[in-house]
Amino acid sequence: MSDQLLTSGATSADKKSDARKAATAAGITVTLWASAFVAIRDVGHSLSPAPMALARLAVAAAALTVVVMVQSSRRRALRSAPSRRALALIATYAVLWLAGYTVALNAAEQHVDAGTAALLVNLAPLLVAFGAGLFLGEGFPRPLIAGSVVALGGVAIIALGSSTHYDWLGIVLCALAAVLYATGAMIQKVTLRHVDGLTAIWLGCLVATAVLLPWAPQLISELQTAPASAVAGAVYLGVFPTAIGFVSWSYALRRMDVGRLTATTYAVPAVSVLLSWLLLGETPTAFGLVGGVICLMGVAISRRRS
């Protein structure tokens, strides 16, 4: 009996430790993805949407290749190659999420203000919550749905404090980005049942870079006239929000339901407002502050167990 109690206690402690690590990884992802909005705002003045996405993903692919090579050199046994099914899933979410979503978001932010973009793109977590319940068997936990609705309301309040510039093309692009984000996140969840997170995001970045190679000549031309700050911003987008951000996302995704994890990204607009205040000197409006607090409350609600 005592051995059973010890085993049960150890298992419970391991689960709590994994939960804390997953929450930490999710927090890293949210912070880095929020910083991407600040960087995109600056880089977008010098690089077009598709070339910017190509630069970002190429840098991420190069950084992750170095990590994979170093990791492989430290191991005697080579990691087994992913199955055909895993490769097909990786290619699918790479095209939809890493390439398609990135280009759509970059293009959308040239037609609508940041608040409107945040509101429309953040429909994705709600789409994931329902999609995961329907297709991945995660069900529809009341805290998740309630928290998602509360957080989405917070995003809407943040949008009210932004400049009211509407463009139907930008709205359509934001909606497209949200759908691509939601679909890619659910496919990645299935992918991680067959391959580890680092390999999945590394191969995904390679595939997405290959898909965007037709824009390489335009990227080279724009880089020749781009200021150093824009080049540095593109490198930052590739190393931090993409390479590190998606690896930490994959780590958390293997240990959490995709619906609950995606709901944490409702905190991205709130963190983005804070980073814009600290880094760009953009004083947040009352709408931004109130909306940010409501976003965080919604995330807290969604994290509760039924």
Question: In a few lines, what is going on in this structure?
Answer:
The chain has 306 residues and is an all-alpha fold. Helices cover 79% and strands 0% of the residues.
Structure description:
It is a single chain. The chain is an all-alpha fold. Helices cover 79% and strands 0% of the residues. It has one domain (25-70, 80-302). The protein is built from 13 helices and no strands. It has helices spanning 2-43, 49-73, 84-108, 114-121, 124-135, 142-160, 168-191, 197-211, 216-225, 228-253, 258-263, 267-280, 286-302. The chain starts with a helix and ends with a helix.
Kindly, what is the distance between the CA atoms of the first and last residues, rounded to a whole number of angstroms? 30 Å
Cα-based radius of gyration, to the nearest Å: 20 Å
How many β-strand runs? 0
Q: How many distinct folded domains? A: 1
Strand content: under 5%
